[in-house]
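Priority: medium. Attachment 1 of 2:
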């Protein structure tokens, strides 16, 4: 099923989030020093992911499904906690945990949350989400890049 156009900006962020997971895994596989990967994770969090979470918290309505809502909120908290641990005194294992947790969270939103919203919200409600995303979401020309391409 094609994603509702109003949710596409969040799905686009998810694509870049999956790339982040891949880059972390590549860095670990190539035995890149922890600090280099940690610096990337901290930068990606600061410039992308934290904003994405904030936007979701503001723009997405209550998911009127207790278990989905609880899981989404729990995963956001878990990822925030992992970021804090990584930036303070982390380990390679935490980097791997972060990549795995973020990957699973993105898949959960794409496969469970978004289809639920598309099935249960009216076109007008989805349009309202789209309007809010236009207001809060970064523009394409503000795309993210990171100079230390340790994953290559």
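Attachment 2 of 2:
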């Amino acid at each position: 099923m094609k994603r509702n156009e109003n949710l596409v900006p969040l799905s686009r962020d998810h694509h870049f989030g999956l790339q982040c997971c891949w880059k972390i895994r590549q860095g670990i596989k190539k035995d890149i020093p922890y600090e280099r990967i940690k610096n990337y994770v901290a930068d990606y969090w600061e410039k992308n992911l934290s904003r994405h979470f904030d936007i979701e918290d503001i723009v997405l309505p209550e998911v009127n499904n207790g278990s989905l809502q609880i899981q989404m909120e729990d995963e956001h908290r878990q990822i925030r906690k992992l970021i804090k641990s990584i930036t303070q005194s982390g380990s390679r294992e935490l980097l791997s945990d972060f990549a795995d947790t973020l990957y699973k969270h993105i898949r959960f939103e794409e496969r469970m949350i978004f289809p639920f919203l598309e099935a249960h919200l009216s076109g007008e409600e989805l349009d309202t989400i789209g309007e809010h995303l236009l207001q809060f979401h970064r523009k394409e020309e503000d795309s993210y890049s990171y100079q230390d391409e340790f994953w290559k």
